[in-house]
Amino acid sequence: MTPETALSTLRDQAPLVQCITNYVAMNIAANVVLAAGASPAMVHATEEIPEFTPVAGALTINIGTLSEPWLSAMKLAAQTAQGGNIPWVLDPVAHFISDYRRRAATDLVAQQPAIIRGNASEILALAGVAGSGKGADSGDAVEAAEDAAKSLARTSGAAVAVTGPVDFLTDGARTARVAGGSALMPKVTALGCSLTALTGAYAAVTPPFEAARAALAHFALAGAEAEKQASGPGSFQLHFLDALANVQPADLEKAVLI
Amino acid sequence: MTPETALSTLRDQAPLVQCITNYVAMNIAANVVLAAGASPAMVHATEEIPEFTPVAGALTINIGTLSEPWLSAMKLAAQTAQGGNIPWVLDPVAHFISDYRRRAATDLVAQQPAIIRGNASEILALAGVAGSGKGADSGDAVEAAEDAAKSLARTSGAAVAVTGPVDFLTDGARTARVAGGSALMPKVTALGCSLTALTGAYAAVTPPFEAARAALAHFALAGAEAEKQASGPGSFQLHFLDALANVQPADLEKAVLI
Amino acid sequence: MTPETALSTLRDQAPLVQCITNYVAMNIAANVVLAAGASPAMVHATEEIPEFTPVAGALTINIGTLSEPWLSAMKLAAQTAQGGNIPWVLDPVAHFISDYRRRAATDLVAQQPAIIRGNASEILALAGVAGSGKGADSGDAVEAAEDAAKSLARTSGAAVAVTGPVDFLTDGARTARVAGGSALMPKVTALGCSLTALTGAYAAVTPPFEAARAALAHFALAGAEAEKQASGPGSFQLHFLDALANVQPADLEKAVLI
């Protein structure tokens, strides 16, 4: 499915996307998913996951602001999704900052996410390669993580998206690169987390590699559009949400380089 | 009390409103209450509810992003408010998605909220009628929930507000409809939750039916005003907060249809 | 270090600032720190604090939306920071509203914060003087809290910042006052909490008194700049983030009165 068809389908179906994400991203990620045309559901109680996750179109899990009750919910939701053939997306935020988080990321990868999205430092670390990340920021170039992404895709079975100035996407065999976006994007908190949520929305309507490619293209185009009107990170965020809603399906073809 | 007088009183008194709401809504709901002219307090620790709730002007409870520690806090706060004659407002977000949430909503209704606010699917389900809700979105028309709202108002003793393109409000005897707003409102996350918080602010200064009517009118007018200047959901949110602050008391009369 | 040099240094080093803050502030505080030029990390799991806090440039703790698991994390992080000579900043939000919160604030002060930032009512109460605060709002003038701030600075060893229309800062010996800002600032939720986070960013690059002075100056200038373009609290927030990013180091000298 092309990005163009994927966006049309997403807007027609408005799929329900369960997002278990961090406190910082909760509001902006929901707004990103809504602006794009899908229906976000921030549900994380272990009491309702067995009943709710199976009716979602997709699930996304992001380990920022991790703590024990949330990790239990994430594991249960991932397991439920995996058992029910619900595609799910993993965002291993800054998982290299502690043993606790490293283990969390490793345990979640074992639940067979359909897509893994991270910055270069996160993907390098997840593939077992030393990087230079600092907190939630990448200290490594996307290009330096391409081999790690391919290797991670092969071992995990997931499509792996490494985001940065030019995004890299692979399922171990195919690759794609998506350009665009804006230098202001890393200046707005939780946009990467929000991209993960949007990737989940696409995963509800099209297979993993196509879903990630469409989400990357949608984000890159909206970012480039927003930059034209922004005077800083505050106005960027506002124009970005507007642009996510206003991007037309046919526009998405322009963003994908390879 | 007319909506006009209610808004004047709200701005004069700047009542303290305790809001126990979900993670998605926390920031925008506080900003909505502040912009309108009241003072929000996001307090949910069971350790401080017995001391804090009795000094609040009103309490609002929203069960989005529910989990066990929060549910305990909600029940204690509702009980404390009810025992202390503090009016409180219930927002039974998507309570039909799981047994866990359904029970939570039912248990909270038993604590005699002064006002219940929800979309049509939520109010239908709370009145025991099958609806077509999906996640946090309503799958039913407001008109289809009018009888359910009246029935719920009579059995619960609460004023019941069903929000949508034209809002419906009833206390079982009286009814009101409020028009206005914007088609962009469902594209911004947690605006319904924020309306619940604002309803609490009004409930601190005027009786339940009048409070809900004033809050609906204030929201509808600010929404219509914001739409004039918005280019999408991002810019809508910004203009909406500005409009909530800039609406004058006399304007509120324009919004109420019946 | 002058505010000018402090901001240049902050932007050169982009220090990692661990922020344990409330749910309302989480997103806007991260955006404020990012816009200013530093790198926020919202990390609060007790499982990773022993490993993460020692690598942060500074730590900030804000007790809004307090609950027991968060209080444990705050105490552990404060202790870890104090033991590792990591400067940390305390924001005792509304600590006078309950015994629970009062004890939390007192226990945290005992962990030797480098800086304490609060409104007049919060600083008065922390110094043991009765004030007139209501929820998160100050009911007292900054001027009325100057003696309390000096006394608190001497007993705690912290630089104490009392924020309001004109901010007051003291380390018990030196004092400074910072003017500017905007009357719209109290109409946007969590801006005070975000100032605390920004103060932490400066504390990572310069000693406490200088750090607080630079943060106050940066905030005041950005606030005054944003007000020029704002039509209400919604647009203010957007222009404020833009202005935080666009303020140049040399501008900071203009804000400090004494």
Describe what this molecule looks like in 3D:
The structure is a homotrimer of 258-residue chains. Chain A is an alpha/beta fold. Chain A has one domain: 3-Layer(aba) Sandwich (UDP-N-acetylmuramoyl-L-alanine:D-glutamate ligase). Chain A is built from 10 helices and 8 strands. The first copy, chain A, has helices at 3-13, 26-36, 49-52, 68-83, 99-109, 120-126, 146-156, 191-203, 208-229, 233-246; strands spanning 16-20, 39-41, 58-62, 88-91, 115-119, 159-163, 167-170, 175-178. In chain A, strands 2-1-3-4-5-6-7-8 form an 8-stranded mixed sheet, with helices on both faces. In chain A, α2 links the parallel β1 (16-20) and β2. In chain A, α9 packs across α10. The radius of gyration of chain A is 16 Å and the shape is globular. Chain A starts with a helix and ends in a 12-residue tail after the last helix. The model of chain A has no long low-confidence stretch (mean pLDDT 96). The A-B interface holds A 16, 23, 26-27, 30-31, 34-35, 39-45, 47-48, 51-52, 55, 69, 237-246 and B 22-28, 64-68, 94, 97-101, 134-137, 186-190, 230-235, 237-238.
Describe the structure concisely for a colleague.
The structure is a homotrimer of 258-residue chains. By secondary structure, the first copy, chain A, is α/β, with parallel strands linked by helices. Chain A has helices at 3-13, 26-36, 49-52, 68-83, 99-109, 120-126, 146-156, 191-203, 208-229, 233-246; strands spanning 16-20, 39-41, 58-62, 88-91, 115-119, 159-163, 167-170, 175-178.
